[in-house]
Amino acid sequence: VAGFGWENISILSAGFQYKGVDKLPLRVGYTYSTNPIPEEVAFFNIPATAIIKNAFQFGLSYEANENWQIDAVFHYGTSGDKTSGEILNPMFASAYPPYGAIPGSEIAYDMTTSMIQFGVSYTFNKKEAKE
Q: What's the whole-model pTM score?
């Protein structure tokens, strides 16, 4: 996003499902993402950041009968390491960057996210798979 000074990122996700327990599929997932915020623009991006480097998901479903299913997932994410940069002087200092850094200063953030989600689904006219 050019307006924020962000760089391109790479995201890698993987997930697995285990159906060894009758009517109770278990799932696990992982997502890795790079940080798009370079140090020189961290000062302007601190209020608008939600950058998660490592995210872990654990979920399951319960098949109540042939039509009804209950799903649950837990997500935990962390920024991995803090996004940081120097505090910039509000006085115009040069053409680029227009605001000089205050020597020895630092602005940073480090965050985690947690989420629990539940869902209920109903399948209409479920057909048996032919073997």
A: 0.72
The DSSP result for 56-121, as a single string, is EEEEEEEE-SSSEEEEEEEEEEE-SS-EEEPPEEEEE--SSSSEEEPTT--EEE--EEEEEEEEEE
- CB–CB of 78/56 below 8 Å? no
Mean per-residue pLDDT of the chain: 83
pLDDT in tens, 7-26: 888 999 999 999 988 889 99
Coil, strand or helix at 107: strand
Domain range for residue 108? 2-122
- The number of distinct structural domains making up the chain is 1
